[in-house]
Amino acid sequence: MKKTAHLLCCLVVAGSAITANGQQKKTNGISYWLTSPEKKMALQQQSNALPFTATDKGIATITIEDTKKFQTIDGFGFTLTGGSATLIHQLPEAQQQALLKELFLAKNNGIGISYLRLSIGASDLSASVFTYDDMPDGETDPTLQHFNLNEEKKDLIPVLQKIVALNPAIKILGSPWTPPAWMKTNNSFIGGSLKPEYYRAYAQYFVKYVKEMKAVGINIDAITIQNEPLHPKNNPSMLMLAPEQAVFIKDHLGPAFKKAGVKTKIILYDHNCDKPEYPMSILNDTAAYPFIDGTAFHLYGGTIDALSTVHEQFPAKHLYFTEQWSDGKGSFANELKNNTSKLIIGATRNWSRNVLQWNLAADAQWNPHTDKGGCSQCLGGITIDGSAISRNSSYYVIGHAAKFVPAGSVRIGSNIAGKLDNVAFKTPAGKTVLIVVNTDDAPQQFQIRVKHKLATTSLNGGEVATYVW
């Protein structure tokens, strides 16, 4: 069921439209934005606000229950990999600043990214592998005399400083792919485990990272201990089993943060939904438990309801969704539908306080990435090809949430009606936001019920919509 309103494109703010002459026109009812699977519309506000009526048409109905409150939202965004930062930093200054405003501010045509993940040292989407304390073969540095952020001062830190200037409240999570090789059992960036004799030094490595980033104006809100600790074949990577992570936190990192006055949150696991027993075993450790803020998940294995499994056992601890890629060889339609359904909707309906896609930017050949293990077809939220910038599926997946659901919003009740996957939020400003994806191939007409009022709308197969009132 096509809508004539699909043809209108305008600059937007929630609950209003900007006319051609720049005058703001107030609308009554529900304002909404659409992205279509064929990308004819891309996060585009529709001209016709949906009016509320008292008439129940007896069709599929999404009922909003704002008295049912769940978790507070910390934000939506991406991993700003080293490669992403390099590509952005290479743009001419004016173009770079315009892009950052589009990415990190919600007004006008911006998508309002409010949460970033960084790699502590290189990730597999860096051009080369490094840590902040690399030593020649055979040498060690247990007192971290050689620790430095010099590699990050080339691109990452300058870009981050511009982002923080635009959005000082942005939340930033740091995750290491590997410690320095000299701390590991195999003296390699790939695989191996952390030697017990270097647990103390590695805890201080995190302390130094947080403090030195703060010194250049970057506040690290949280860290995970190890990216994908059960995947030691990436480049870089490290194997860290749950008992090792528990000992590291309770005997070293937790006490080190406390002694140094570091308030950065400690988050467990940072890997797939197929092993919720990993974080739960650590949360069951009474000595580790007080130092832990929560658990982070990816979705390359298992099902998203693993987050609820952890929540049910440990309701006082938070849940985070920190990584899912978009496939450079996949279709826009499938990536849009699946990642909106599984991540924006699925993760938040299972208690996640954030949703992050992997990664923010790549070039047209899905570079840069490391050799021998780095992801060779990870599609960025944006593609930067010289000075040309294109926007990909995850840009719109994240945009449909980040633009309208700021940090401090609270998830509220809504039912799943047939194949209309959805999630609802109440913003700090009192707006209600409903995100819906039609996972069916056929068009679907439905109602949105708010107390005794109803509004009728429809979505074509694979379309994503954000409704605001």
TrEMBL record:
It comes from the Bacteria. Keywords: Glycosidase, Hydrolase, Signal. InterPro entries: GH, GH30_C, Glyco_hydro_30, Glyco_hydro_30_TIM-barrel, Glyco_hydro_b. Residues 73-405 form the Glycosyl hydrolase family 30 TIM-barrel domain. The keyword Hydrolase applies. Residues 408-466 form the Glycosyl hydrolase family 30 beta sandwich domain. Residues 1-19 form the signal peptide. The keyword Hydrolase applies. PANTHER family: GLUCOSYLCERAMIDASE, LYSOSOMAL ACID GLUCOSYLCERAMIDASE. Belongs to the glycosyl hydrolase 30 family. This is Glucosylceramidase. It comes from Chitinophaga hostae. The lineage of its organism: Bacteria, Pseudomonadati, Bacteroidota, Chitinophagia, Chitinophagales.
